[in-house]
């Protein structure tokens, strides 16, 4: 049987990220040497899907023949895992490439391995991975997505090759910019969902049919298309941009009465809209101050609560 042109990979962390990338690498021809995860059933499930016989919950069981280690553990666990791997006597460190999938940490978090001669890098998939009981068994689309990568020149070459084989694209992030880069990822995913969830919950209060996606979907789609065609800032519309503070007052009163828990969200969004409008010259300083004063007054007099009104 001919030897694979791909390096032998050990996967440490069998959650949604590790499982998705691990399966994708296997399908491209990468031999999976070992699967390690603190959760045994996830490790077994991934190992079966990539035809790997070496599976464990212990870091010390990483396959000695590993040429590449993919670290897909939680951000907080990375320093400890790197330290544990660096103390293994079975690994050929100077022939090893280790890459982690954290969005916030640079390759420096793998310093214990680098000191042993390991080539280290970071490779963060710019994609959302579902959570939940069976998340590790789901397939997350990886083809064509970007990966935020970072590391020394030789490490970047190895990482780019890995991403090419995954049919992905790369954006190189400076190591000091990794936390800011990850802020953008969080805002592009979770923070956007916060506003979508607010739209969904507020629509329920209206007690109308059809659902919120049908009613407001065209508005959201057109807004996104406008942002893509020009810029997000240039696409802003609405009462704050127009300086219609009486409408803002009505919004705040409605939220105060029906959904006070969303006052902080509306307020923070409104402050940012006002900042952008002022920056673009479509709102005067006086109008900006008027908006801020209204927001402060309503937040002070109507402290938000997570409790639902009984009539809902």
Strand order in the sheet with the most strands: 3-2-1-4-5-6-7-8
- Main β sheet profile: 8 strands, mixed
Number of domains: 2
Rounded mean pLDDT is 91
Please characterize this protein's 3D structure.
The chain has helices at residues 16-27, 40-49, 78-86, 111-114, 153-165, 178-206, 212-229, 239-242, 245-258, 263-279, 285-301; strands spanning 9-12, 32-36, 55-56, 68-71, 97-100, 119-125, 146-151, 169-172. The chain has 312 residues and is an alpha/beta fold. It has 2 domains: 9-173, NAD(P)-binding Rossmann-like Domain (Rossmann fold), CATH 3.40.50; 236-312. The chain has an 8-stranded mixed β-sheet. Strand 7 (146-151), helix 5 (153-165) and strand 8 form a beta-alpha-beta unit. The chain is elongated. The model is unreliable at 305-312 (pLDDT under 50).
Offer a concise description of the structure:
This protein is α/β, with parallel strands linked by helices and 312 residues long. It has helices spanning 16-27, 40-49, 78-86, 111-114, 153-165, 178-206, 212-229, 239-242, 245-258, 263-279, 285-301, and strands at residues 9-12, 32-36, 55-56, 68-71, 97-100, 119-125, 146-151, 169-172. The chain has two domains: 9-173, NAD(P)-binding Rossmann-like Domain (Rossmann fold, 3-Layer(aba) Sandwich), CATH 3.40.50; 236-312.
């Amino acid at each position: 049987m001919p030897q694979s042109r791909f390096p032998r990979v050990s996967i440490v962390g069998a959650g949604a990220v590790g499982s998705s990338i691990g399966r994708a690498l296997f399908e491209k021809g990468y031999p999976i040497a070992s699967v390690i995860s603190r959760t045994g059933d996830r490790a077994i499930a991934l190992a079966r899907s990539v035809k790997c016989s070496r599976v464990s919950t212990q870091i010390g069981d990483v396959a000695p023949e590993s040429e590449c280690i993919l670290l897909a553990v939680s951000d907080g666990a990375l320093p400890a895992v790197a330290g544990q791997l660096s103390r293994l006597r079975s690994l050929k460190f100077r022939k090893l490439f280790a890459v982690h999938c954290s969005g916030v940490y640079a390759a420096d978090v793998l310093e214990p391995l680098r000191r042993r001669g390991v080539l280290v890098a970071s490779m963060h998939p710019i994609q959302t991975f579902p959570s939940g009981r069976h998340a590790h068994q789901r397939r997350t689309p990886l083809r064509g997505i970007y990966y935020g990568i970072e590391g020394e020149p030789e490490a970047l070459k190895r990482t780019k090759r890995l991403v090419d084989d995954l049919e992905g694209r790369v954006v190189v992030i400076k190591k000091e910019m990794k936390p800011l880069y990850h802020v953008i990822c969080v805002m592009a995913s979770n923070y956007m969902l916060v506003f979508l969830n607010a739209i969904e919950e507020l629509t329920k209060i209206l007690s109308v049919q059809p659902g919120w996606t049908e009613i407001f979907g065209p508005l959201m789609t057109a807004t996104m298309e406008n942002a893509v065609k020009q810029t997000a800032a240039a696409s802003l519309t609405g009462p704050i941009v127009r300086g219609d503070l009486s409408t803002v007052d009505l919004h705040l009163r409605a939220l105060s009465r029906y959904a006070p828990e969303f006052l902080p969200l509306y307020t923070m969004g409104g402050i940012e809209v006002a900042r952008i409008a002022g920056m673009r010259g479509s709102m005067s300083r006086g109008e900006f101050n008027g908006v801020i004063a209204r927001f402060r007054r309503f937040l002070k007099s109507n402290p938000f609560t997570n409790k639902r009104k009984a009539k809902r």
